[in-house]
Amino acid sequence: MNSPQFTAKPSPSPSDADPYPHPVPYDVIIAGCGPTGAMLAAELRLHDVRVLVLEKETEPAPFARVVGLHIRSLELMAMRGLLDRVLEHGRRRPAAGFFAGISKPEPEGLDSAHAYLVGIPQPVIVRLLEEHAVQLGAQVRRGCAVAGFERDDEGVTVDLADGEQLRARYLVGCDGGRSTVRKLLGVGFPGEPSRTETLMGEMEVGAPPEEIAAKVTEIGETNKRFWLRPFGGGAYSVVVPAAGVGDRAEPPTLQDFKQQLRAIAGTDFGVHSPRWLSRFGDATRLAERYRVGRVLLAGDAAHIHPPTGGQGLNLGVQDAFNLGWKLAAQIRGWAPETLLDTYQAERHPVAEDVLDNTRAQMELHSTEPGPQALRRLLTELMDIDEVNRRLIEKITAIGIRYDFGDGPDLLGRRLRDIDIDIDVAQGHLYGLLHHGRGLLLDRTAHLTVGGWSDRVDHLADPTAALDVSCLLLRPDGHVAWIGDDQQDLNDHLSRWFGKPAN
Q1: How far is 400 from 397, CA to CA, in rounded Å?
Q2: Contacts of 315 (CB under 8 A, 6+ apart)
Q3: Please, are residues 57 and 73 in contact by the beta-carbon 8 Å criterion?
Q4: What per-residue confidence (pLDDT) applies to 8?
Q5: How distant, in Å, are the alpha carbons of 60, 289, 317, 356 from that of 347?
Q6: For the segment 145-178, what is each residue's pLDDT rounded down to a tens digit?
Q7: 126 φ/ψ angles, rounded to the nearest 5 degrees
């Protein structure tokens, strides 16, 4: 083969003059600057969309709850050149033990170059994503709460709590499980309320470490919602079932923890000096719609579920990654008519699956005889590699296949970060996806992206670990087409990237 050729038009700089006249100050206003909102802002800015992020809190959360970034989220970070920053602040762990806390080894040969978990404090990942969005040109305003909005054919007028009005072409609610945007939009949020509640906090303890470890091991045999784990600096992460379902708006007290620790473990371990205390329930709800005209929902505003399996933050970030390029295409004027509708068509079923697997996991956490028997049976079945692998792929989101129609199994799936012999990619596929554009991998060197070159890059004659001759990747890394016929390729370029520019 000849040396690979990579053709791409430079992505617009945030400082470049916008060639499109606008009747409104912002293209998109995002309510909420958590991981979902920050990631969405960054994805929109890759396409020079004018973004304002409104965050009602004046400061980031003061406590450092550790969250886990799963395989698919790590792949997304790699696609945008963020993974090294994440790894600097996180701790790698094996991709195992996710499903209902059942301890099984990581399956061999998971289909990813990033087959591990990264534990990272939530404020840190929020800060990294917000910094990324701001560096790309997004505006972030803190202490600004959305109080209302009105929609019309041209855009959305957003009312802030202080009386200020802002105007944008689109509004996206990334404002959490109690989303103001969703409530004002009137979108149904069916599901189940919390039946159980769990206390979680970080505090110091007075008992010896060996006593704590022995008691946690004993109780942990049957109660998976109980643990005390060293957190560093003399503090422990403490999780214990609550006495009942309370008002989540009110944080628990240290006395609540002591009471429940005594009830379950027979001792409160001398807990004292809490750094932060919180509670979470097992409410499970899914928005009936992700889009009503010019207003959309993403992240916890669209779905809530118990944190078992650690999927919540990951699901929201992946929502943002799916939505960003599609909403940008709509704003830039090249989106096919139904492209924005594919956001709900693709992500709603994914959320349904997450809600189902968290329901199942919560049942397996029950200390009742029936669920405990089922847990023992599943623990045995997970010794079968295929069962263990399927559950890991489900939790880490690398098993997702969007319905793009009939075709090879790879169609609709994300492509792993394969090795590619090309300098600009530094030897990896994801190095070619930093700018959020489509990509044609053309091993025949006979195809072209033609009038779509302003939206799709072309790598001709690559030396790559592929079992197919050519494929087209969407900006989110999912395979949109496989083949070697130019006309068939053109049809699929039109499907995903609109009409050619010339």
Answers
A1: 6
A2: 299, 303, 350, 351, 354, 397
A3: no
A4: 58
A5: 28, 11, 12, 14
A6: 999 999 999 999 999 999 999 999 999 999 999 9
A7: -65, -45
